[in-house]
UniProtKB/TrEMBL annotation:
UniProt protein name: Metalloprotease
Organism superkingdom: Bacteria
Organism: Flavobacterium aquaticum
Keyword field contains ATP-binding: no
Region (Disordered): 1-20
Pfam family, one: Zn_peptidase
Lineage per the UniProt record: Bacteria, Pseudomonadati, Bacteroidota, Flavobacteriia, Flavobacteriales
Length: 284
C-alpha cells in the first residue's frame, strides 16, 4: 500500500510501551461492563451513568513505566495512522454520497499487553476489537505477527489495513444503529440463532472493509487484495477451529467461515455500493 508521506489521523492514541496500557481505572473492567450494559438497555439512565464515569475518570492514574519505541514500532504507528486517516476520509465521503448524515470519526488506541476500555478490560489475546461504549478501535500490533506465524496469513501491510477497516466497519454499524438492533434481537434467540446474527454482523463489517478498499484503490499496490483475503481466510471460524481444536462446529461460529469472510470483503471491494451489504438478508 502506498502510504508514506500522506496524511496521518489525529485520532490515534499510542499507548505502546506503557505498562498496563497507559492508565489504571478505579473499579476495573467489571464496573465498566456494567456501565456499558446499563446505557445500552436503559438509555434514560445514560446521564446518571455518565456522571459516575466522569467522577471515576478523575481517579485515573498514569503509569510511570514507559519505554522508547523502536524505529520499526514508530514506522508501524505512522502506517496505521495513515490507514486510519483513509478510513476517516472515505467514510465521510460514503456518508455524504448516500445521505447517511455526518460521519462521526472513531478513535484508535494502540496498546501493548492489556488495556482498559469502556467495554471492560482486555488483553492482547483478544485481538483487535471495537468498543461501542467509547467508539474506539483497540489494537495490539503484535497480533499480526501471530496471525502470520500461528494462523498462516501471508502478512504484509494490507493485512493490517484490512483488519483496521473491518473494525471501523463495526463503528459504522454502531452509528447507523445496526449493532444495537442486532444485540437487542439476540436477547430473544437461542444460542445458535444468536450466533448466526453475530456472523451476519461480522460479515457486514468485512463488506465494509472491502467497500473502503474500493474507494482507496489509488493507493493500492499489487498483492494488497491478496494479503487482505489471506487474512480474512486465516480468521474464519472454520480455519481457527480446525487449528485450535481439530474439528469444526458450525453452530458455534460467531464471525463466519473463511469462504464467507472472503466473499463479503470482495463483494464490498468489487461493488463499491453500501446498499449491497445486507448480509442479514442473504445469510440468514
Amino acid at each position: 500500500m502506498k502510504w508514506r508521506g500522506r496524511r496521518q489521523s489525529d485520532n490515534v492514541e499510542d499507548r505502546r510501551g506503557m505498562s498496563g496500557g497507559g492508565k489504571v481505572i478505579a473499579g476495573g473492567g467489571a464496573i465498566a461492563i456494567v456501565f456499558f450494559l446499563v446505557k445500552m438497555f436503559f438509555p434514560e439512565a445514560a446521564p446518571f451513568v455518565d456522571t459516575i464515569q466522569q467522577s471515576q475518570g478523575a481517579q485515573q492514574t498514569e503509569q510511570v513505566e514507559q519505554r522508547e519505541l523502536t524505529p520499526e514500532e514508530k514506522e508501524m504507528g505512522e502506517f496505521v495512522s495513515t490507514v486510519f486517516a483513509d478510513t476517516e476520509d472515505i467514510w465521510t465521503k460514503i456518508f455524504e454520497e448516500n445521505n447517511l448524515g455526518t460521519y462521526e470519526q472513531p478513535k484508535m488506541v494502540l496498546f501493548t499487553g492489556s488495556v482498559e476500555t469502556a467495554c471492560g478490560g482486555a488483553s492482547s489475546a483478544s485481538g483487535p476489537f471495537y468498543c461501542p461504549g467509547d467508539h474506539k478501535v483497540y489494537m495490539d500490533l503484535a497480533f499480526f505477527e501471530e496471525l502470520r506465524t500461528r494462523f498462516g496469513a501471508k502478512g504484509g501491510d494490507f493485512a493490517i489495513a484490512y483488519v483496521i477497516a473491518h473494525e471501523v466497519g463495526h463503528h459504522v454499524q454502531t452509528i447507523l444503529g445496526t449493532s444495537g438492533k442486532v444485540r437487542q434481537l439476540q436477547q430473544s434467540k437461542s444460542e445458535a440463532e444468536a450466533n448466526k446474527l453475530s456472523v451476519c454482523l461480522e460479515l457486514q463489517a468485512d463488506f465494509y472493509g472491502g467497500l473502503w478498499a474500493h474507494y482507496n484503490q489509488k493507493y493500492l499496490e499489487e498483492g494488497d487484495i491478496e494479503e487482505a483475503l489471506s487474512a480474512a481466510h486465516a480468521v474464519g471460524d472454520d480455519a481457527i477451529q480446525s487449528k485450535m481444536q481439530g474439528h469444526i462446529v458450525p453452530d458455534s461460529f460467531t464471525h463466519g467461515s473463511s469462504e464467507q469472510r472472503m466473499k463479503w470483503f470482495m463483494k464490498g471491494f468489487k461493488s463499491g455500493d453500501i446498499r449491497l451489504g445486507d448480509t442479514f438478508a442473504e445469510e440468514l
